[in-house]
Amino acid sequence: MTAWTTVELTRIGSSDELQIASVRPDGTLRNPVTIWVVRDGDSLYVRSVKGPTAAWFRGTQESHEGRIRAGGVEKEVTFVDAGHDIDDEVDAAYRAKYQRYAGSILNSVLTTQARSTTTKLVPRATRS
User: Fold this and answer.
1) 104: pLDDT strictly greater than 90
2) Number of folded domains in the chain?
3) Residue 110: which domain range?
4) What secondary structure letter does DSSP report for 27?
5) d(Cα 22, Cα 87) in Å, to the nearest integer?
6) pTM score, two decimals?
7) Strand 65-70's sheet: what is its strand order?
8) Which of 3, 54, 82, 95 is most buried, by the most CB atoms less than 10 A from its CB?
């Protein structure tokens, strides 16, 4: 499994927004969607504000592959369901990074519904 470089983690982790696009069954990318991203240690996580019914999230669950872009980094990734043992750490990362937003906005990524979609972004080698 490929790992994030320190530069990638810093650039993506410090970006306010991330563009995410999953791979369709025919191998093409879906249209990218803008979401928030947080870093915890050497890992990057995203959540769906609308929970598991959001189209972009459902796409990640079908193929588990896609592409992200943030902070000048564009990377092919694997979408991995994060275990609920990381929920509190990811909550804390969201609170720390996005604390400048009103509570109602920030709290949208802290709901039970959003937490159920916590997804770890794992870089993958590009195919030839």
Assistant:
1) no
2) 1
3) 6-123
4) S
5) 23
6) 0.93
7) 33-35, 18-22, 65-70, 73-81, 119-123, 43-46, 38-40
8) 82
